[in-house]
Amino acid sequence: MLSERSKGFAAIITTREIWGASPLYYHAISEVPPLTILAHRTVWSLVFFLVILALQRRLGRIVPAVVGPDWRRVLVAAVLISSNWFLFIWAISVGRVVESSLGYYIMPLFSVVLGVVFLRERLALVQWLAVGLACAAVLVLTLGLGVAPWVSLALASTFAVYGLVKKRVSLGPFMSVAAEITVLTPLALAWLVHAGPGPGFGHDPVRTALLVGVGLITAVPLVTFAYGARRVGLATVGITMYLNPTLQFLCATVILAEPFTGWHLVAFAMIWLALALYASGLISATRAQGRAAAALVPNADAAIRGGYASRGPHD
Q1: Confidence (pTM)
Q2: Residue 160: which residues within 8 A CB-CB, separation 6 or more?
Q3: Of 104, 190, 221, 302, which is most buried with the most CB atoms under 10 A?
Q4: Cα-only R_g, the chain
């Protein structure tokens, strides 16, 4: 029998693997226009979310989540995540998966900077070094290739800002994503009516299954991630996030045979070093918090024992 922690870790790894290998899935339907794929992803994701919520007997919470006090933040989050999804799908369709993987590598460092600017968080020296290395890597790639890696920057910034907005949403993570997809679905349906459901949909069983499946590979990882995140530590969740862009990078260079120049190698090496520094800072901070919590336990036990000792027999 696996422990709850082991089950949680397996769920997190499964989630990262699905996200990391997803370029291969989207590449298989790359002849379908990216906006059409996005529309299918939105509509079928909502179907799966509604099924899950119905099984949980929480279906009636969707409308209050969409029109409730957080509706403005839900709307902004919906715009950001749909933009991120579209950029990712488009990047795969035009053979720029290497750039998309770079975007998800630097996304945590974008989030760190947003935390400093908007949440007044403080960074350790090693974290500032990581951010500086990431900026230098982007500069190296820009000078080397003669153009800024705007796909990477757009993916990183939209997802980082999305995370910032989500911090201010009072809804739970699963319900908030369901609300965002609900907001986007009317637009998705309108696009499918206007542009059509895409080549082969409804006639080719394989193509139809693949387009319906984009909702499944969106909804299932969110469920497994929520399951795993409740059972493992925050540091584990944070460190495993790098598995996603690493698998994307391997898909791009090994399977899809995208070009990988010397400039890419230098930039990626700098990013990997930056992430190693960032991860070491995260692990050190987590250990320090653990030691501080452990130091409080004996004091708490002593206080409890003292409290019981001072009570009378009828207290």
Answers
A1: 0.86
A2: 107, 110, 111, 114
A3: 104
A4: 22
